[in-house]
């Protein structure tokens, strides 16, 4: 089986649970299994065969998906929260956000989601069947208060 070079493109850093669970840890675990993967680096764009867009659907990301697909790169859109149900004070901003989210769902080759419930929601929005991938599990961090118990 050919092993592809995979990149995760995500907003947020290590303080973001979504980034850790949906990008950083899967990348780490796949590396341990011999896969070539990393957090997205623009300088390495020509090396990628798969790029995972984790909760990104802004104009820049939509354009990048098109560019990557034109070069034969497989694009995956990963969503771990229901962004169709989101309160924004500005109704116009919500409409714009929903339109961009729908564009990403339509563009991506594959959609992955974190739960069966989110899968049901996304199935109603696209003709694609999202793949459910549970969140990766972080090793527990011992709280200093419980060290001597």
Overview of this protein structure:
The chain has one domain: Glycogen Phosphorylase B (Rossmann fold, 3-Layer(aba) Sandwich). The chain contains four helices and six strands; from the N terminus they run βαββαβαβαβ.
Question: Which key features would you list for this structure?
Answer:
149 residues; alpha/beta; Rossmann fold; six-stranded parallel sheet
Written as H for each helix and E for each strand, in order along the chain, the element string is EHEEHEHEHE
| Number of E strands | 6
Shape: globular
Percent of residues in helices comes to 25-40%
Quick overview of this protein structure:
The protein has 149 residues and is of the alpha/beta class. 36% of the residues lie in helices and 18% in strands. It has one domain (5-137): Rossmann fold.
